[in-house]
Specification:
Pfam families: MAM (PF00629). The chain is mainly β. Helices cover 0% and strands 29% of the residues. Strand 5 and strand 6 form a beta hairpin. The chain is globular. It starts with a strand and ends in an 8-residue tail after the last strand.
């Protein structure tokens, strides 16, 4: 929207704890750089009623998101972006979920890594803000809620982290 942009790129899952320094993504079930397609990632089905706005695979063709993607480092690479020009994004509490495929449970630690872009064009302390980017895990068991793993709020800069 005109206030800013949240995007993600280069998602990776791997067994074991996360490394201290970034690694090159492996070709595992949850890995995706979005260059060819959305891999095993999707928007929830409308009947699930989880979100109000969808994520879309995009590149810098419409100038609504980052000018470059993280994978290629140019304007021709793809990343996931909340659909631009969606009126609902202006409403507080609007949600857009990007859902992975199911993973086999493991008693050992698992690592998720990704790059994000959280840029707010106009920063007004009294007005609407960009919002947050959050990561949750959901166990596929009755009565098990979503468990938050990570969250970040508002403007972080006009670059990939």
């Amino acid at each position: 929207n005109q206030f800013g942009n949240i995007a993600v790129d280069d998602i990776s899952f791997r067994p074991g704890p996360c490394p201290v320094v970034p690694q090159t993504a492996a070709k595992d079930n949850g890995d995706c750089n979005f260059e060819e397609n959305m891999c095993n990632w999707s928007n929830p089905a409308p009947q699930d009623e989880l979100d109000d706005v969808d994520w879309a695979r995009q590149y810098y063709y419409d100038q609504s998101g980052p000018t470059i993607d993280h994978t290629r480092g140019d304007g021709k690479g793809y990343y996931m972006n909340l659909l631009p020009n969606t009126p609902l994004i202006l409403k507080g509490g609007t949600r857009g979920w990007l859902v992975s495929s199911r993973f086999q449970p493991s008693p050992n630690p698992q690592c998720v890594s990704f790059h994000y872009w959280m840029y707010e064009r106009l920063i007004d302390p009294a007005g609407l803000s960009l919002g947050s980017l959050r990561v949750y895990v959901r166990l596929i068991k009755p009565g098990k809620p979503l468990s938050p793993l990570w969250r970040l709020y508002n403007h972080q800069g006009e670059r990939w982290f």
